[in-house]
Amino acid sequence: MRLVEREMLLKFEELAETVQLVQGGLKIKAVEIVGLNKGKQYMDNIRELLETFAYAELVLLETRKRDFRSNRMQIYTLIFVEVALFIGLSVCTLSFLRRSFSNR
Q: Helix 2-23 to helix 27-35 angle, to the nearest 10 degrees?
């Protein structure tokens, strides 16, 4: 993002320079500066940098979504095993209690 900031500063400096020239009555000099297309190049660079940044963020988002799905499945599996063990333990406990009370 520092590259974007640098390009933006350059663009704003050029813009400020041309505005000052026009306000100072040097419109032809301002048109010459605009004609060099440096401002357009700065904006093209900013667009390219932002597209690269957006793509990198998209790749990172997809990676995080994949990790989230994987972790979610592990949690679901763990919960399923815990519930199954709890049910099994409940059945064993009830069976034990029935035998204990029926022997008295």
A: 150
The span from the CA of 68 to the CA of 74, in Å, is 10
The tokens of 54 are what? 């957006």
Q: How is residue 25 annotated by DSSP?
A: T
Neighbours of 21 (CB within 10 A): 18
Q: What's the CA gap between 45 and 49, in Å, rounded? A: 6
1 SS3 class: coil
Per-residue pLDDT, 104:
63
Which of 78, 84, 7 has its CA nearest to residue 41? 7
Q: Which amino acid is at 90?
A: S
Q: pLDDT digits over 87-96, tens only?
A: 999 999 999 9
Q: Retrieve residue 32's tokens.
A: 């010459």
Tell the residue number behind the tokens 């357009």, with chain if given: 40
Read off the DSSP letter of residue 36: T
Scan for tokens 């069976």, then name that residue: 95
Cα of first residue to Cα of last residue in the chain, in angstroms, is 79
